[in-house]
Amino acid sequence: MHTGRHFLQIPGPTNVPDRVLRAIDMPTIDHRGPEFGRLGLEVIEGCKAVFRTGNPVIIYPSSGTGAWEAAILNTLSPGDRVLVAETGHFATLWGRMAAKLKLEVETIPGDWRHGADPGEIGARLAEDRGHVIKAVMVVHNETSTGVTSRIPDIRRAIDAARHPALFLVDTISSLGSIDYRHDEWGVDVTVGGSQKGLMLPPGLGFNAVSDKALAAARGNSSRRSYWDWHEIIAANADGYWPYTPATNLLYGLRESLAMLQEEGMDSVFARHDRHAAATRAAIRAWELEILCVDPYAYSSALTAVVMPEGHDADRYREVVLNKFDMSLGTGLAKLKGCVFRIGHLGHFNDLMLMGTLAGVEMGFALAGVPYRKGGVGAAMAVLEHTVPPGKHHM
Ligand code: PLP
Predict the structure, then answer these.
(1) 139 CA: nearest ligand 1 atom
(2) Distance (Å, rounded) from C-alpha 273 to C-alpha 267?
(3) For 368-381, what is each residue's pLDDT tens digit?
(4) Cα–Cα distance for residue pair 88/329, rounded to 1 Å
(5) How many domains does the chain contain in total?
(6) How far is C-alpha 144 from the geometric centre of its chain's CA atoms?
(7) Phi and psi dihedrals of 2, rounded to 5?
(8) How far apart are CA 333 and CA 331, in angstroms?
(9) pLDDT at 392 over 80
(10) Would you say the ipTM is above 0.95?
(11) Residue at which a domain ends, from 203, 230, 261
(12) Which residue, 35, 123, 205, 376, has fewest beta-carbon neighbours within 10 Å?
């Protein structure tokens, strides 16, 4: 029996603000009526501002995995070769999906502690003189590791190789938390999800698409129906969908987009940067290891902590859950038991961070994990010495 609020500190789904919950708690309306049309147009426009694009953003009633599949099925055909940067578990899963959809997947191996290497991607593309590679697939923020990849540098590498491959980017755990610019960075398909920086429950998937991606989709007759962009984009012109959309989640989306806009995207990113810096200060003070080894690639959405040798991260997480009613992220795939992840993204503030870090630190003592005291104090010092980016008690 726990009292007070559960601490949901996994790197998504994230805490849904009360404002968003209240917006969702409305009568479901006629999805072909005039009120819905206005809602549809409003959320589509609002999404464009968050993805930083003037092009269509397609919203699916789906998880992020569905939006991954939509990105592949619309632009690529069986037999096409794709280049996947193995940054962690989610990049691996996206590549595995491409293989299931009968694409030829070429992986650039990674150690799950660095971001995708623009130099390696550029070199591989430069070798591919026959332009056999049809797409480069990169996860912007690897949720399994807390490592980000430099999307603008990868774009420059593709351009320097004079390669026509499409550039597909997963921004599921970075959108609305870490700076991202679909148009400016020359991304062809950006994949998003509702349950992280957008502060919504799970259930919406997004594709932001470039003109080049739209042209590839028009020329691509590979099998798809539900995921096909064109019918959706046509219906979206008046704010509708060709099928029954997730009406109440779209009410929530309208509210969460308003919250992001009110705070200002730059303030949102600065808030996440500051909480991530404070989290890293705590980890260093505890004399524990951050999984990400490249300071330029530190994620502002989550931080993965390496457990000391001989200690199981999941047993530790279980102690924290039972004792403090806080969920921390598990280690995924080969990181199972070796790391736990602290989510500091979405609807979050200084005191939520301090509560989270206090639970983490108290959990070490209870679970018998060796650590040095003082992480919470170190994080507090970072917060005290950095100015909060405007008001963020939304
Ligand atoms: N890509 C990334 C980076 C993710 O973090 C996730 C989920 O956590 C996914 C893809 C898969 O999304 P979903 O679980 O919503 O299908």
Answers:
(1) 3
(2) 10
(3) 999 999 999 999 99
(4) 15
(5) 2
(6) 10
(7) -115, 150
(8) 7
(9) no
(10) yes
(11) 261
(12) 35
